[in-house]
Amino acid sequence: MRSCASAVLSAAFSLSLGVLLVQPLPVRAVTSYANDFVDPTYVLAKDFSNVTAEAQATIVSWAQSLAREGPWSDSWPNCSSVGNTTALTDEEVWTTCPYETRDGQFNPDGRLVNDVGAFSDLADAVLYNALAWAIKGSGTYSGNVATFVKAWFLDADTAMNPNLAYAQMARGPDGQVGQHTGVLDLKCMAKLVSGVLILREGQAAEWTSDIDTQFSAWAANYTTWLTTASIALEEEAAENNHGTFYYNQLAALQVLVGDTAGAKATLEKYFTTQYMWQIDASGDQESLHKSQQAQTNPRPPTQTNAKIGAYIGYDAWNLTTSNGTTIKSALDYALTQGAGTETASELYPDVVAVGAAYGDAGGKYAAWMLANAKKAYPEDAQFFWNQPFSDSGLVKTGGSSSTGSSGSGNSVSGGADASSDNGAARGAWSAVAAMGAAVLVAAVL
Ligand SMILES: *[C@@H]1O[C@H](CO)[C@@H](O)[C@H](O)[C@H]1NC(C)=O
Ligand SMILES: *[C@@H]1O[C@H](CO)[C@@H](O)[C@H](O)[C@H]1NC(C)=O
Ligand SMILES: *[C@@H]1O[C@H](CO)[C@@H](O)[C@H](O)[C@H]1NC(C)=O
Ligand SMILES: *[C@@H]1O[C@H](CO)[C@@H](O)[C@H](O)[C@H]1NC(C)=O
Ligand SMILES: *[C@@H]1O[C@H](CO)[C@@H](O)[C@H](O)[C@H]1NC(C)=O
Ligand SMILES: *[C@@H]1O[C@H](CO)[C@@H](O)[C@H](O)[C@H]1NC(C)=O
């Protein structure tokens, strides 16, 4: 549970930096990627390339750090230390001042109760603990997932209601109701669902059929809200990152409840509507629907939609827009732009994912990662699931350097030594990556 004792600004950054600040540096800080979906089939096959050994160690370390923070549940504000900051009482502000929408900026009210940050931490904790269970085989990690899911979704005292009717509430004279932008607050459901699927399909003992049944019922109820409530449908229609993230959530939840046909239809809808006009002929996926000051790039959630599709037999990586461009075109364009409004680290998962999905025959993407992310890039967690991708010969396995060829197919799964080194000598760039992630989280809300 978090209180609102931290002021608005620090609340806005508490998601990623909170984890960073409580850890003794230089342990590699947890990076909260914009979103992702990790294919449970790949994880459970446990046929991991040797070059993922360091990424596996990072995942186990992140699972442990996040688990120390949980469980999370949605919470009420504790404003005892905030003090009076305006001549108006809060109640007067909430009921008399019209609220404006400023895309890309936080509604400060929403930060008094940092449920968005708590949910993002929860999603990361579920994903990394499920992966750590698959990598290490210890029930501690699957037990963490069960505890966290129960606290957020199932236990009567702490469970979230299965709707976002009040998310990103606009107060003011006509207010006291949620806005469609608040649907974005559960976008990381795609990460959480992939974690749950790993435990379910891997038959982790701690993920009991009782928890599975109850969580599926919660998800079915919420999915009904997500496909019928007026603000949810407004979010679905949004042409920018908001609409794209909506499809991440809905498709992932449909997969979770066993509605594969529904999930395919959901992805089909995205890839025949918003996607068709999101990427222009140059590959620019940002400009068409960009708001003034926000990074509202739908590139990361588009990749997540493609990853969910790949898992259920809907191949989206090669689908072309009305301009004949693809997901790869959007990444290639982004690489020509320099960091711009993004930090380079925000591109890392997208570069590795595109290299894994389309191949990296000329070594262009690996060279870019080496130049920008430097030598530590194969220890980034996402390097584990975005395979095959070259480690540029950086990973030391079994006392010998790997050749740099990707996807060797040799397994280090369950290796007792995979997490023995939690990165004490690493992570020079990881603080920067975490900052980038925090900025990204701030910007898309
Ligand atoms: C609220 O926060 C204050 C410190 O700011 C703390 O002393 C108090 O115990 C908190 N109240 C609750 C109910 O957590
Ligand atoms: C806050 O404002 C109220 C109403 O004006 C006042 O009664 C109270 O003493 C103020 N509290 C602080 C901590 O300044
Ligand atoms: C969905 O959840 C709400 C709130 O918990 C509950 O009132 C409603 O009966 C549920 N609907 C279904 C179909 O389970
Ligand atoms: C590219 O797509 C945009 C948005 O749909 C459209 O306005 C433009 O005409 C297209 N350009 C080409 C060359 O197809
Ligand atoms: C995309 O199309 C190319 C050429 O048809 C094919 O070789 C490749 O396997 C496809 N990629 C995916 C991810 O389906
Ligand atoms: C991969 O790991 C296996 C088993 O530990 C080892 O025998 C092999 O040499 C490793 N391959 C490389 C390229 O390091």
Draw up the topology in text.
Layout: H1 8-22, H2 40-45, H3 53-69, H4 90-96, H5 108-112, H6 115-136, H7 139-154, H8 189-201, H9 209-228, H10 230-237, H11 241-256, H12 260-272, H13 299-312, H14 327-336, H15 344-358, H16 364-373, H17 381-385, E1 396-397, E2 400-401, H18 430-444
Antiparallel strand pairs: 1-2
Helix pairs in contact: 1-6, 1-18, 3-6, 6-7, 6-8, 7-9, 8-11, 9-11, 10-11, 11-12, 11-13, 12-13, 14-15, 15-16
The structure holds 2-acetamido-2-deoxy-beta-D-glucopyranose (6 copies).
One 2-acetamido-2-deoxy-beta-D-glucopyranose binds at residues 315, 317-318, 357.
InterPro entries: Alginate_lyase_dom, Chondroitin_lyas
GO cellular component, one term: periplasmic space
GO molecular function, one term: lyase activity
Structure in a nutshell:
This protein is mainly alpha-helical.
Could you describe the 3D structure shown?
Residues 395-417 are annotated as: Disordered. Residues 1-29 form the signal peptide. Keywords: Lyase, Signal. This is Alginate lyase domain-containing protein. InterPro entries: Alginate_lyase_dom (IPR008397), Chondroitin_lyas (IPR008929). α10 crosses α11, α11 packs antiparallel against α12 and α14 (327-336) packs antiparallel against α15. A hairpin with a 2-residue loop joins β1 and β2. The relative contact order is 0.17. The chain has 18 helices and two strands. It has 445 residues and is an all-alpha fold. The chain has a two-stranded antiparallel ribbon. 51% of the residues lie in helices and 1% in strands. The protein has a domain at 8-206 and 333-444. The two termini are 21 Å apart. Bound molecules: 2-acetamido-2-deoxy-beta-D-glucopyranose (NAG) (6 copies). One 2-acetamido-2-deoxy-beta-D-glucopyranose is lined by residues 3, 5, 78, 80-81.
